[in-house]
Specification:
This protein is of the alpha+beta class. It has 2 domains: about 1-35; about 45-85 and about 195-424, Alpha-Beta Complex (paralog of FGE (formylglycine-generating enzyme)), CATH 3.90.1580. The protein is about 20% helix and about 15% strand. The strands form 5 sheets. It has a 4-stranded mixed beta sheet with strand order 11-10-9-12. Strands 1-4-13 form a 3-stranded antiparallel beta sheet, with no helix packed on it.
Length: about 425
């Protein structure tokens, strides 16, 4: 009797499939096709880096770093990476989005979707003019009373908080109850809220007995620095930017019937190194090497050429992104200008135990974690560093909650598929 019932159920499943999919062959497994055919995306301002194998570590005999950067052969999955570091202009878009989203909530500017849900009405024209009705209703977003300076109506950057959540896939995968489905999904959903405004005071805080106040007052907002790399951004803020960029893409894709993407994120340490080398095996610098100057004696990156010598390379501090020639992957400023955050946690002996396939050491530290777990790898060297730190194999670190006038970032995006050529 049970066999008869089971047979009836199977007949029903086949009938259901044949009714729902006209291309299905009766009695055969044909698969369930996606509604949208996948095509290669081309994120604006990003380059595709193909999968490959390379040797990580120093490209020459650097005895001091031998124990922390032993050479090792690894493989990296293909990915997209920003051609340049994220600029002030691009990060201001993030700041503006957070500002406007807070304002729209305060102004009760919502619209109703076709499903009856309420969402922010981004077509609402917010009038930020001092004295306007909107500006008066948004008074809490501006400095008030004794916090006002020079009679100016300035936005209170302390109000610019961004909320997002992320799923801790590694914790879920290593949970002992995952196969029994006894763990709650909520245990692995992490909620974050942080202020995303850059630390403009870093220009003064980073250098004692030096006059850098003009940079503090102007660097992030003045049009003279629009295409300069954003600085004063912590690792946490850079991570929040990546989440916002993902939501920005996916929300637009939902509106136009496009395809959602894998999450934008900070590059892993060795993704960054692989991209920096530009396909040149053992190259000490993104342009090959072994020198920091070309045949005419011109410097090839923005860094500190000598003691007390900052402007010889054409920039006293940072320079506009793309001021120097790209490497063979089309990536600019992989050496110098600003050092760059990676998603990787820093361990001195990491090269001794990391996997040889997409090495990834991440520690998403929370309160109570040891201080050492909050160290994140930075790469590439900066405008204030000597030439050694520009090398493709040199690694350094900084605490994830610190902001510096010489650290910026760029985003990456994992390529979905074996190769770009599969979709041509």
């Amino acid at each position: 009797m049970q066999r008869i019932v089971l047979a009836l159920v199977l007949i029903g499943l086949v009938a259901t499939q044949s009714c729902s999919d006209s291309s299905a062959v009766a009695g055969e497994v044909t698969g369930v096709k996606s509604q949208n055919e996948w095509s290669v995306i081309n994120p604006l301002g990003m380059s595709y880096v193909p999968s490959g194998t390379f040797y990580i570590g120093q490209s020459d005999q650097d005895i001091n770093s031998t124990l922390t950067q032993r050479q090792k052969s690894i493989s990296i999955q293909g990915f997209y990476i920003d051609n340049t570091e994220i600029t002030n202009s691009e990060y201001r878009q993030f700041v503006g989005w957070v500002r406007d989203s807070i304002a729209l909530v305060m102004l009760n500017a919502f619209e109703e979707t076709e499903t009856g849900e309420q969402r922010l009405d981004w077509t609402y024209p917010i009038d930020w003019t001092q004295g306007s009705e909107d500006a008066s209703a948004l008074g809490e977003m501006f400095y008030q009373g004794d916090d006002q300076y020079g009679g100016q109506n300035e936005l209170d950057s302390r109000q610019l908080n961004y909320k997002y959540d992320w799923y801790d896939w590694k914790a879920a995968a290593t949970n002992s109850d995952r196969t029994n489905s006894t763990a709650s999904r909520a245990d692995f959903i992490k909620k974050e809220e942080l202020n995303i405004y850059p630390d403009t005071l870093c220009w003064i805080a980073d250098f004692s007995y030096a006059y850098n106040e003009p940079m503090t007052r102007n660097y992030f907002w003045h049009p003279a620095f629009e295409e300069y790399p954003v600085v004063g951004v912590t690792w946490d803020q850079a991570t929040a930017f990546c989440d916002w960029r993902t939501q920005l893409w996916n929300s637009n894709a939902a509106l136009v019937g496009g395809q959602k993407v894998e999450n934008f994120r900070l590059p892993f340490e060795h993704e960054w190194e692989y991209a920096s080398r530009g396909g040149l095996e053992g190259a000490p610098f993104p342009w090959g090497g072994p020198y920091l100057r070309n045949s005419k004696g011109c410097l090839l990156a923005n860094f500190k050429p000598g003691r007390g010598n900052y402007p010889e390379d054409g920039g006293f501090y940072t320079v506009p992104v793309g001021s120097y020639n790209p490497n063979q992957y089309g990536l600019f400023d992989m050496a110098g200008n600003v050092a760059e955050w990676t998603s990787s946690a820093y361990f001195e002996n990491a090269y001794s135990f990391i996997h040889d396939m997409n090495p990834d050491i991440r520690v998403d530290s929370e309160d109570g974690d040891p201080v050492t777990l909050r160290r994140k790898v930075i790469r590439g060297g900066s405008w204030k560093d000597i030439g050694y730190y520009l090398r493709t194999g040199v690694r350094h670190w900084e605490f994830q909650d610190t902001s510096k006038s010489y650290i910026g970032f760029r985003c990456t995006l994992t390529f979905l598929g074996r190769s770009m050529g599969d979709f041509n």
